[in-house]
Design a protein that fits this description.
about 15% helix; 9 strands; alpha+beta; about 150 residues
């Protein structure tokens, strides 16, 4: 490889890395998604007992050109301490919110604007920990990238 070819490739890589990573995806992946944030904001539904809830916010979808078969972006699972098969699956609370994410559509990630999600779980521990979110779409379960520690 020539220096000119190397520099041209490096500039392309820097542009990709400098862009918002939440829109970096495998172009051949049938499903994709990202966890933007985890917070302790108030759960919008009824909950009993002294429970702290964690909110997980992001987006998940089927790539443009594929059928989503009506599976909503809120069809996610949350694991504590490790990915599926290693971590403990937490119960996602009843209220799940779909969120319109025009930024994701404009980036070409998803065809449907209602690809954002907000879901909540009961916080299992009082210390910082790792969480893994999966999207359970029509083409199987995928691990979402993005924020993991809270």
């Amino acid at each position: 490889m020539t220096l000119k070819g190397f520099l041209a490739g490096s500039v392309g890589a820097v542009v990709l890395l400098g862009s918002q990573q939440s829109f970096a995806w495998d172009p051949n992946a049938a499903q994709r998604g990202w966890v933007d944030s985890i917070d302790v904001h108030t759960y919008p539904g009824p909950i009993f007992g002294p429970t702290t809830t964690l909110g997980f916010h992001g987006w998940a979808c089927v790539r443009p050109g594929l059928a989503d078969y009506g599976v909503p972006s809120t069809q996610v699972a949350v694991y504590h301490g490790g990915p599926p098969g290693v971590g403990t699956r937490l119960t996602v609370l009843e209220v799940r919110q779909s969120v319109s994410r025009y930024d994701v559509v404009n980036a070409g990630s998803c065809a449907n604007v209602n690809n954002g999600f907000s879901v909540w779980v009961a916080k299992p521990v009082s210390y910082p920990s790792s969480y893994y979110v999966t999207y359970q779409g029509p083409y199987g379960e995928i691990l979402l990238e993005g924020v993991r520690n809270f």
